[in-house]
Specification:
mainly alpha
Length: 218
């Protein structure tokens, strides 16, 4: 399997993972199937669209190659139907369900962080570390931010378990592994994405959060 096929498989995996989190958010907010499709699709391709606009790659890949949007739409429909049929069972096992959704959210974040770095390099900005890392993080968190805003809640990156920090660290690790040619690119991608996933899982297990100001009025 060549690198392009590996990259495509990774991107599809991230698209499916993020679409699932979008639909679950729609279910939690009691939206109809259209709302679920919108949130699922926005979550899956929103970050990539913002990235491509930032890099001047127009029209964005989501419109050049509709396979990503179509995958997100199909995933959204399937997940909504499953939730509709077995929703009561999910409620009974809420803790397990929450961990599964958190894993998919972390997986999508990990995947899109590394694809963000790759896209920056493909657009001729590979030597610009700040831009590459910035668009990598934007790719990873952009769709989730759009999802949360549409759902009427504070974006997850601003309030939960080092979400954005995990994306930043993963992007830095992957970028400099490529910059110094430490490993083959496929291995570097696995390390970069894996670091994001590990940080998110550890943050969930140990309840890591960045400092906040509490009881400020007291």
């Amino acid at each position: 399997m060549n690198f392009e096929k590996i990259l495509f498989a990774i991107e599809i995996t991230g698209t499916i993972a993020f679409a699932i989190t979008g639909v679950i958010t729609a279910v939690e907010k009691k939206l109809d199937i259209l709302g679920a499709i919108v949130l699922g699709t926005v979550t899956a391709v929103g970050g990539g669209i913002l990235r491509d606009i930032m890099l001047g790659y127009l029209p964005p890949m989501a419109f050049r190659n509709p396979v990503y949007a179509l995958t997100a739409i199909a995933t959204s429909v399937v997940v909504f139907v499953i939730a509709f049929l077995v929703g009561k069972k999910i409620v009974k096992h809420f803790e397990v369900y929450s961990q599964v959704i958190n894993f998919f959210d972390s997986l999508g974040l990990a995947v899109f962080v590394v694809t963000g770095v790759n896209t920056a390099a493909a657009c001729g900005f590979g030597e610009n570390a700040f831009l590459s890392i910035f668009v990598a993080v934007l790719t990873g968190v952009g769709g989730g931010v759009m999802r949360d805003i549409l759902a009427g809640r504070v974006p997850k990156i601003l309030r939960r378990r080092v979400y954005a920090l995990a994306a930043i660290l993963g992007a830095i690790i992957y970028y400099y592994l490529l910059e110094f040619n430490v490993f083959p690119q496929t291995v570097s991608m696995l390390i970069g994405a894996g670091s994001v996933l590990i940080i998110r899982i550890l943050a969930t297990i140990f309840h890591w959060n960045l400092p906040t100001i509490k009881n400020i009025e007291e």
